Amino acid sequence: YSEKVMDHFRNPRNVGEMKDADAVGEAGNPVCGDMMYIYIKVDPETEVIKEITFQTFGCSAAIATSSMITEMAKGKTLDEAIKITRKDVADELGGLPPQKMHCSNLAADALHDAIKKYREKMKDKK
Ligand code: FES
C-alpha cells in the first residue's frame, strides 16, 4: 500500500453516522459481503455538499478509499461529485493493489447512490 493509503487507513477522515443526513448512499461488495454507507448534507440552493461522512464494515482499502472520497467530495457540487470515479479515488491514493480494486469501488458507488437518492428526494418535493 502507498503511504497515502496507510495514512487514510490509520486516520480516516469523516467517519461516523450522520443522524440528520439529507441522503444516505449504500453499496455492497459482492466479493466479500462488506457494506459501505455514505451520508451527505447538501445546501439546497447551491447543491454543494456541506457535510459528508461514511461508515463501512469493509477492509483497510475500503476504509482508506472512503476516507479519501469524503475529502474529495466535500465542498463540491453534486454535479462535480458525481463525476468522481472509482479510478479518481485510486489515483488520488497513489494506486491500489489490483486485488483490492473491488474494495475501493464501494466508496464511489455509495457516493453516487447518495447523490441519486438526494436528487430523487428533491424531485418528490417539487
Ligand atoms: Fe471487503 Fe475489501 S475485502 S471491502
Summarize the structure in words:
The protein is an alpha+beta fold. The chain has five helices and three strands. The chain is globular and about 45 Å long. Residues 29, 32, 34, 58-59, 61-62, 103, 106 line the site of FE2/S2 (inorganic) cluster (FES).
**Cross-sheet strand order for the largest sheet:** 1-2-3
What proportion of the residues form beta strands (DSSP E)? 15-25%
Average pLDDT across residues?
A: 94
What percent of residues adopt helix (DSSP H or I)?
40-55%
Shape descriptor reads globular
| Sheet with the most strands, sense and barrel status | 3 strands, antiparallel
Gist?
This protein is of the alpha+beta class and 126 residues long. The protein has five helices and three strands. Helices cover 46% and strands 17% of the residues.
Please name the defining characteristics of this protein.
126 residues; binds FE2/S2 (inorganic) cluster; alpha+beta; 5 helices; globular; 3 strands; single chain; 17% strand
Helices and strands, with pairings:
Layout: H1 3-10, E1 23-28, E2 35-42, E3 49-56, H2 60-73, H3 78-81, H4 86-92, H5 101-125
Antiparallel strand pairs: 1-2, 2-3
